[in-house]
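Priority: medium. Attachment 1 of 2:
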């Protein structure tokens, strides 16, 4: 180091100006790689069951895994309010059970949205499926199984009209 020159003019200071920002940029930052809305919209369109439910009861069981993750087993009892489509023959007034797992992470990992934990007394649209041999239903559209994503509007075709000019046919 040269005597008499301020620190900002030395090689060491220049190295700190270059190396330190690079180190900061290389630190792991939490990433969120959410699926595009079109994927969830497709899952909603393809769900065998599209109903509206009123949640009567929600039971949860928590299980801690490591320092970061908590797995929450969710059991929902709901009453069907309306039916848009139903492969299993659901009718308004029927009581159904929905079972799924919600995983809570301190730092969310990249990936699709978690299916939310429903609240008793609330009404939700529900995109569900029931696998063979099961008595309960599963969410069919991941984190958007209990929320309607608007379908993209059809592109409007613009029609150009040329005004008629006298004498031209």
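Attachment 2 of 2:
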């Amino acid at each position: 180091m040269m005597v008499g020159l301020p620190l900002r003019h030395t090689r060491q200071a220049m190295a700190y100006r270059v190396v330190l920002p690079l180190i900061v940029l290389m630190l792991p930052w939490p990433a969120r790689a959410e699926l595009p809305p079109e994927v969830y919209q497709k899952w909603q369109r393809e769900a065998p069951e599209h109903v509206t439910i009123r949640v009567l009861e929600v039971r949860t069981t928590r299980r801690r895994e490591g320092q970061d993750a908590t797995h929450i087993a969710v059991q929902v009892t709901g009453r069907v309010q309306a039916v848009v489509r139903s492969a299993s023959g659901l009718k308004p007034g029927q009581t159904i059970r929905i079972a799924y797992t919600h995983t809570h992470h301190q730092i969310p990992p990249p990936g699709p949205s978690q299916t939310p934990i429903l609240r008793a007394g609330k009404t939700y649209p529900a995109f569900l499926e029931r696998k063979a041999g099961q008595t309960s239903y599963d969410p069919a559209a991941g984190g958007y199984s209990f929320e309607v994503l608007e379908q993209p509007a059809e592109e409007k075709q613009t029609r150009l009209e040329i005004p008629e000019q006298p004498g031209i046919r």
